[in-house]
Amino acid sequence: MNPTAAIRQLRELVGDQAVSTGASDLEIHSHDESTHGPVLPGAIVYPKTTAEVSGILAIANREGMPVTGYGAGTSLEGNAVPAAGGIVVDFRDMNRILAIHEEDFQATVQAGVLRLDLEEHLSRYGLFFPPDPGANASIGGMIANNAAGIRAIKYGATRDNVLALTAVLADGRVIKTGSRSVKQSAGYDLRHLIIGSEGTLALVTEATLKLAPVPEHFATAVVAFPDVSSVAAAVHSIMGYGLEPAALEMLHAYDIRWMNEDEDAGLVEAPSLMMEFTGASVVAVDEAMAEARSLSNAAGAVGAQEGLDHQTRAQLWRLRHSARERYARRNPGKKHITIDVSVPVSTLPELVAFAEKACADLGFDLPIYGHAGDGNIHIGVVYAQAAATAATELSGKLVKKALELGGTSTGEHGTGIGKRKYLVDEFGADAVDVMHSIKQALDPNNILNPGKVLPD
Ligand SMILES: Cc1cc2nc3c(=O)[nH]c(=O)nc-3n(C[C@H](O)[C@H](O)[C@H](O)COP(=O)(O)OP(=O)(O)OC[C@H]3O[C@@H](n4cnc5c(N)ncnc54)[C@H](O)[C@@H]3O)c2cc1C
Fold first, then answer.
1. pLDDT in tens, 370-380
2. Is-contact 57 118, C-beta < 8 A?
3. Residues 6+ apart with CB under 8 A from 58
4. pTM of the prediction?
5. In the 8-state DSSP scheme, what is residue 38?
């Protein structure tokens, strides 16, 4: 590897202004939002076109320089940490919305477009891009991590909402995958191989996204339960009944207390389910909510706030999305991991009961929340350095339990650095060998985001 030669060639390719080696820039790109330790890259490059990304990767491949893609740096599993140093390719300047195919409910965008900018732009068409990880992530980062979030229960994860990609391989070749047809079955499915690969197989430069009409009507409620196990039981009945919520979020009692104290939310301080139904007919939406409420009562609900208006609903979703910031604000100097596991929804009550006991055994409060309707829960552990080993142990126990229940080590945050060690347990050694072969075929010099996804 010859970093000086590589950086000189990069400057010649994209211009001096689009290559940075400034200390603060390197620091910003040395970490994501996880607790995985920072690693300083050697340079940051800001391309504007697919052709420039192609040139950057050709140089890096020739010089043997590691390359890590960077969208908004909001990953939670070390996915965006440049673990082997090298170059970070920041997609900040690839932020153009290239086309809105309104009649087909599609948009083609560059990878650096931020989710909220897209949402604002699409609102004038009455359309939106459903995946919503809460953070203002980039479309490229969402594709790379297969982000999901609160609306996945109705619309699926990012993987289900991307029709076509332009991607650049490690040696600089540009490939197109997918098409603008909603149904596709030609050839091997490289599109879905690249989605969720965390920038280890290719860098995504453009994507055609599936959009949905903004629903006209909604019904939102926050239902309180005596304990988290009852919340999990209610989730199971609501899903088992065949209702199709637009969101079914578990909130823990501490978070509700903090929402009340910090933001005057006025919610009952109890483990709760935040549920929402959306649709084109007010009758259908109200009927679904009434069924969900009666199933919640049967599961032991002790109260509810419902019939919420637009403003209250928007405020509650804002509070739900800012849970992480709230924990950080209330626990200055402490670390915060969000453990992410997912199981078949019928086993959610068992996972939650297990998590309750595991948290109690290790001396943590019970900070369970998450996208319970998908069987996907998060345990938000805030801890001082002295409790780091216990936090890691808790994460390991929950992953093991999720796998026993037929689930996965990560529902939506990706494998990154933190979950690599569970991959063989989850899929078996042969399947992981196949993954290594794919990596070897597409990136033989291992320059793309090394140290991520696959175990060494
Ligand atoms: C407060 C908060 C709440 C969150 N809630 C959720 C949630 O509910 N659901 C959820 O799924 N996630 C959630 N996340 C995690 C995070 O927002 C997602 O993982 C998101 O997809 C990361 O996007 P990003 O643009 O920040 O990508 P980055 O963090 O910059 O990068 C993510 C990965 O993609 C790679 N990459 C970036 N751009 C490209 C590209 N163009 N081509 C190829 N690889 C690329 C990076 O190398 C890295 O591996 C949350 C994060 C925070 C901070």
1. 999 999 999 98
2. no
3. 171, 172
4. 0.97
5. P
